[in-house]
Specification:
Shape: elongated
Number of helices: 5
Radius of gyration: 21 Å
Order of helices and strands: HEEHEEHEEHH
Structural class: alpha+beta
Mean pLDDT: 87
Strand content: 15-25%
Strand order of the largest sheet: 3-4-6-5
Number of strands: 6
Distance between the termini: 51 Å
């Protein structure tokens, strides 16, 4: 029973770390990257649809992305969604068949702003990991009547170790992203 609680908590914490890394990828660095547009939702026939399902993305140059929609009627909606995305500063131009998105050069002030955003995302991920730990600890405490107190204490110790490993993984990803952001 304790092993089930710990394995569930481990899986959920690892998922939280992966979500944090995906969130970090959506914050732009010096060069254009198709992952920046991963979370952009386009209003496609009234339904919010991920951009990756509506178009292909290529980056022919360091600061340019080319968005080629599968359905040409969605061109204007895609362009509007890219323009309305906060923290991107993108300038899309539409030629009737595809959209060229030119990302402006990052200033020092903008880089520091992105670092704050990434730190906030990292803190949200850590809170998520801690919430998972709290629920797992409550589940372990509920088992105290069925199994011995020593077993529960060992389980709690293992839970703390798992939590520390996952929080450290988030911190490592944060350090890498900060270095990437501040690199000129």
């Amino acid at each position: 029973m304790i092993a089930d609680v710990l394995s569930d908590a481990t899986a959920r914490m690892q998922k939280a770390v992966e979500v944090a890394k995906d969130d970090f990828a959506t914050v732009r660095t010096g060069r254009a990257n198709p992952q920046l547009f991963q979370k952009i939702l386009v209003s496609y026939y009234g339904t919010p649809t991920p951009l990756s399902q509506l178009a292909s993305l290529q980056n022919p140059e360091a600061r340019t992305l080319v968005v080629t929609p599968y359905d040409k009627s969605a061109l204007r909606d895609i362009e509007q969604a890219i323009r309305d995305t906060p923290n991107l500063g993108a300038n899309p131009s539409n030629d009737g068949n595809l959209i060229r998105v030119t990302l402006p050069e990052l200033t020092e002030e903008r880089r520091k702003e992105y670092v704050k955003i990434v730190r906030s995302k990292a803190e949200d991920a850590k809170v998520s990991v801690r919430n998972i730990r709290r629920k797992a600890k409550d589940d372990l405490d509920a088992l105290k009547g069925e199994v011995g107190d020593d077993e529960v204490a060992r389980g709690e110790k293992e839970l703390e170790h798992i939590t520390k490993v996952n929080v450290d993984a988030i911190d490592d990803a944060l350090k890498r992203k900060e270095a990437e952001l501040l690199e000129v």
